[in-house]
Design brief:
The protein is about 35% helix and about 15% strand. The chain has 14 helices and 12 strands. It has a 7-stranded parallel β-sheet, sandwiched between helices. Strands 8-9-12-11-10 form a 5-stranded mixed β-sheet. A hairpin with a 6-residue loop joins strand 10 and strand 11. Helix 4 runs parallel beside helix 5 and helix 9 crosses helix 10.
Length: about 350
């Protein structure tokens, strides 16, 4: 076989590989964010950015030339374990399912995981043969602003709900027999190719007010983050947040020093706790603080820079189990992975459930 869809990759590779597909028109930090999270959370060896010549579900209007999109994506990726290519040109495929099947034929011993933002989950039912895609490759969906419980309640994830792995099992996903999928409640990233093309100003995640050098009193970042953590805890206490948990991320993650998880009894209280915290941070000189998830109030994220705060309703907190995910991360990485076998007939049964329900309802 003379196919070489991914230059420099041996056809005998046994690597665990994440596939992030799309038009990349243009590539942005959100793509890189998901890739880095996938390398860490799923224990992958590489992530391949599969740049599509043309997404069948999107208009070609305003589409940059493929060579331009690939070049810009490579410039943005800037990571030794992220490869950027347009393998569909070599494979002659157009739809995701066909591309995945072709890559699996070429790289027979590789272990693939399809990567996507959670905002794509509701759109999967519009993809060609989306049920077969679940049956062909493991899938990992990463949290996106505004897409948490709503995305998981959409038809595609509901159809394959029984095949979902918990976030604490994410490292097993690459070696699971499909269908197998996982939702990763990682830090939210708001970059959007649509917004970039529209010329909208990109919101920045301010880590604090700029202070002249001569007035700085906390030049040590660790002391600054500890002080910020104390301010966050005080605000949560003042607003009657419950079950406050602090997770030390130093040495575990590059995006923050601490993660704080707390609960509110209702959606109103959850939103109020988050808004009061953002106001307090602003009043104490920490500048604008992004707050995500206020529309639903099930899970609100406050990005204070070195301290990331998650405020949940109790039901949503139990569902996402962030504490368990972080507590078991090192343990899961050390354990040997066992391949999970799933009967082929299970796929047909899962896919047939919605149709059966519709028949009974009629």
């Amino acid at each position: 076989m003379s196919l070489h869809p991914m230059p420099g990759v041996s056809r005998a590779t046994t690597r665990r590989i994440g596939l992030l597909g799309g038009s990349f028109n243009p590539a942005h930090d959100g793509h890189r964010h998901i890739s880095l999270e996938a390398l860490k959370r799923l224990g992958l060896d590489e992530v391949w950015w599969v740049v599509s010549p043309q997404n069948p579900l999107k208009s070609g209007d305003g589409m940059e030339p493929l060579s331009t999109r690939v070049a810009r994506a490579r410039q943005l990726a800037r990571h030794p374990r992220i490869r950027v290519a347009a393998p569909e040109l070599v494979l002659g495929t157009r739809y995701t399912l066909d591309t995945v099947r072709a890559l699996k034929r070429v790289y027979r011993d590789a272990k693939f995981v399809w990567l996507m933002g959670a905002d794509i989950l509701p759109q999967l039912v519009d993809w060609a043969n989306w049920r077969e895609l679940f049956a062909t490759v493991a899938i990992a969906a990463f949290a996106r602003p505004g897409w948490g419980l709503a995305a998981l309640a959409s038809p595609a994830p509901r159809t394959f709900a029984r095949f979902r792995l918990g976030a604490d099992q994410a490292r097993q996903l690459a070696t699971c027999e499909p269908p197998a999928w996982c939702f990763i409640p990682s830090r939210l990233d708001e970059h959007s190719a649509t917004a970039i093309r529209a010329g909208r100003p990109r919101r920045t995640r301010s880590k604090g007010k700029t202070i002249p050098a001569q007035t700085r009193t906390l030049p040590d970042r660790s002391k600054a983050s500890d002080a910020l953590l104390e301010l966050v805890r005080q605000s949560l206490d003042d607003n009657k947040a419950e079950d406050i948990v602090v997770i030390d991320l130093k040495g575990k993650s590059a995006f923050a020093d601490y993660m704080v998880i707390a609960s509110g009894r209702s959606t109103r209280q959850v939103v109020a706790i988050a808004e009061h915290l953002a106001d307090k941070l602003k009043q104490t000189g920490h500048g604008y603080t992004p707050v995500e998830g206020k529309q639903t109030g099930d899970w609100v994220l406050v990005d204070a820079g070195d301290v990331i705060v998650h405020v949940f309703r109790p039901e949503a907190r139990a569902f996402y189990a962030l504490e368990k995910m972080w507590a078991l991360e090192d343990e899961a990485a050390a354990k040997p992975v066992k391949k999970t076998a799933v009967r082929k007939t299970a796929v047909k049964k899962a896919a047939a459930k919605p149709a059966a329900r519709r028949k009974r309802a009629s």
